[in-house]
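[step 3/7] fold_predict: job queued, chain A
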Amino acid sequence: MTLHAPLIDSHCHLNYEGLIERQADVLANARAAGITGFLNISTRESEWSDIVATAEREPDVWATVGIHPHEADKHADLGRQVLRDATDHPRVIGVGETGLDYYYDKSDRAVQRDLFRMHIGVARETGLPIVIHTRDAEADTLEILADEMEQGTFPALIHCFTASADFGRKVLDLGLTVSLSGIVTFKNAREIQEFTKEIPAERLLVETDSPFLAPVPHRGKTCEPAFVRNTAEFVAELRGEDVEQLAATTSRNFFNLFRKAGTPA
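[step 4/7] structure written:
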């Protein structure tokens, strides 16, 4: 059944292997399921132009520009002005994804932290939300966020929330939004599921992070933006809400946060 309320996939990678080969069909499937908007996320400079081109071609797709912490070493010399200039494109509505990943440690931690702060500075200057990835780096992520907030506030969200409830409460106290992926539907995600009930309605988003992390009942498949419906249904049940209500709320939250996107159609 198609949703009547709008529902946004607030984090997907439409230009990644698994989706790019059939991007038109992937988007058509999602639209048929009632998904009304897609935020296509970049992780390295070399893909910015392609991700922006997708957003130029598809009116319900927007783009971000940024450097994932896994790619930090390869972008250690990225100039701040390069990132700042890339945000000027009208279809670019966010900065990132960026942040810290100490689980895989694919890049030097100091370089990760420096690039994270640079992204925050650009987000502060432009007013665009910063899309944050954090894994096994709660203490440093919180320290940087708190320190940077003292220098001037900026809009931000934690995408694909997988951290502790304590971390979640602290980032909410800092004014951030929390986005839930298909991970929340996994059986071993009990702490995330309990924390989901605490998230204020106005600070909640849902996403797929496709082509990764397909939610139940699609685990093991290539994740698609259409599957955000399953995550929304699961989250709504956890929170004791109707899925139409949750869809409408998260869509409104998306446009309130990503103001450059405009207003819902």
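[step 5/7] annotate
The first helix runs from residue 23 to 32.
The longest strand covers residues 92-101.
exit 0
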